[in-house]
Design a protein that fits this description.
The protein is α+β, with helices and mostly antiparallel strands and about 425 residues long. Helix content is about 50%, strand content about 10%. Among the domains are: about 130 residues, Beta Polymerase, domain 2, CATH 3.30.460; about 140 residues, no CATH class. Helix 6 links the parallel strand 9 and strand 10. Helix 14 packs across helix 18.
Length: about 425
């Protein structure tokens, strides 16, 4: 049996008079042939206090303010419940547990693919709402109209589109509309949590496109929505406007293995193109510097961690300088490297280089695998720069003179290294 590691826990529940079912993402991933991660168990026919006793716990050990959940060896166990909308937001639900059936518990869930259950003793799949069929068809369909009662479900649906490579249906778009008004008031950290997960997928552009199709892009990521229609020079950007370019860039960054910070930098590298003067279009002069305050505003609104902010701001400011690194004079190379923290290490520089490389490749299929020698040269130069030590100027008193001498010495070292 594939689920034996859950059987002892499930057997204890059954012995106490309850019927346990494995639910949600575990069942979905199992049917997709993916390795399931989190395990959630729903128990029918047993109140929380008796369930706790059966598991050797007290109901006071349960976690969760809205609805109590018992955690046993990393497995979340809850009694079946139904929900009714009583207030605004994702917390505005009243729960009922007495006499609730498995089907009533499943129907409250968001998407059909997440509304399936597994009998751990027989391996039978309980699928009253057609989730398996939708998995096979690669479509995201709501369990019912109540989908629109929780604004966070919009973000989850867009994320599932990216994670599972599934299409958003017109039915889902229709039932999501009522939640848009509430989405405006969702805390920034909840929005960031979903964005961060989406940027870890193989094709983050599907998340952004999903938000757009669901009518939520201007609410969740207005800085990205503002890039729509911002035309670019066709010679350098045959892929289209700055919005299309950004979607390609995040996908190229994912292909390059970008970490969380580099992925966020790839997403935000061109925000300045939304605010360059219209009379200069299709050119976007100084968009690098114009984008920096927009990066900070976005980070403030979404409560983005400071390491992500640092990489994104640096990428916005200097990605064009990274592109032309091989053409810079040695002193300007040194100054760029210092801005990228190369004297202390090359982690920031590596992240900026990856986002910049994704930018260079995010220009249509002809550039998707383009070489990026300037990025390698920059990282090689960073290593050379760190070989120059300041002890040779220890006899100097003026800090400005020392800094000038160090810059000159570093520039000479780059020239000697042929960089």
């Amino acid at each position: 049996m594939r689920h034996q590691r859950h059987l002892p826990l499930c057997q204890r529940i059954k012995d106490a008079g309850g019927q346990p079912y494995v639910v949600g993402g575990y069942v979905r991933d199992l049917l997709l042939g993916r390795q399931p991660k989190d395990v959630d168990i729903v128990v029918v026919g047993l109140p929380i206090n008796k369930l706790a006793v059966a598991l050797g716990m007290s109901w006071t050990d349960a976690v969760g303010k809205q609805f109590p959940v018992l955690i046993v060896d990393g497995v979340e166990v809850a009694v079946a419940r139904s929900e009714s909308k009583v207030a605004l937001g994702h917390k505005g639900f009243a729960c009922e547990t007495e006499g609730v059936t498995l089907e009533q518990d499943l129907v409250r869930r968001d998407l059909t693919i997440n509304a399936m259950a597994l009998d751990p003793f027989t391996d039978k799949i309980i699928d009253p709402y057609g989730g398996a069929k939708d998995l096979e068809a690669r479509v995201l369909r709501p369990v019912g109209p109540h989908f629109g009662e929780d604004p966070v479900r919009i973000l989850r649906a867009a994320r599932f589109s990216a994670q599972l490579d599934m299409d958003i249906t017109d039915e889902l778009i229709a039932v999501a509309e009522p939640a848009l008004a509430e989405l405006v008031d969702e805390p920034g950290e909840r929005l960031w949590g979903e964005l961060e997960k989406a940027l870890r997928t193989r094709q983050p552009s599907r998340f952004i496109d999903g938000l757009d199709r669901l009518g939520a892009l201007e609410i969740v990521l207005p800085e990205i929505a503002a890039l729509k229609g911002r035309i670019q020079p066709e010679k350098y950007h045959p892929e289209g406007d700055a919005y299309v370019h950004t979607l390609e860039v995040v996908d190229r960054a994912a292909e390059l293995g970008g970490d969380d910070e580099a992925m966020f930098a790839a997403l935000t590298h061109d925000l300045g193109k939304a605010v360059t003067p219209d009379d200069n279009l299709p050119h976007h002069y100084n968009h690098e510097a114009l984008g920096v305050p927009l990066v900070h505003a976005m980070c403030d609104r979404l409560h983005v961690p400071n390491p992500h902010r640092k990489v994104a701001a640096a990428t916005s400011k200097d990605h064009l300088n990274v592109h032309r690194f091989n053409d810079l004079k040695p002193v300007k190379k040194v100054r760029l490297l210092m801005r990228l923290g190369a004297a202390q290490g090359d982690l920031l520089a590596r992240r900026v280089v990856l986002a910049s490389k994704a930018d260079a490749r995010g220009r249509g299929p002809l550039h998707a695998d383009a070489a990026y020698e300037q990025g390698d040269a920059l990282l090689e130069a960073a290593a050379v720069l760190r070989t120059v030590k300041g002890h040779q100027f220890a006899n100097l008193k003026d800090g400005r003179v020392i800094a000038q001498k160090m810059e000159q010495a570093r520039a000479r070292a780059l020239k000697l290294a042929g960089i």
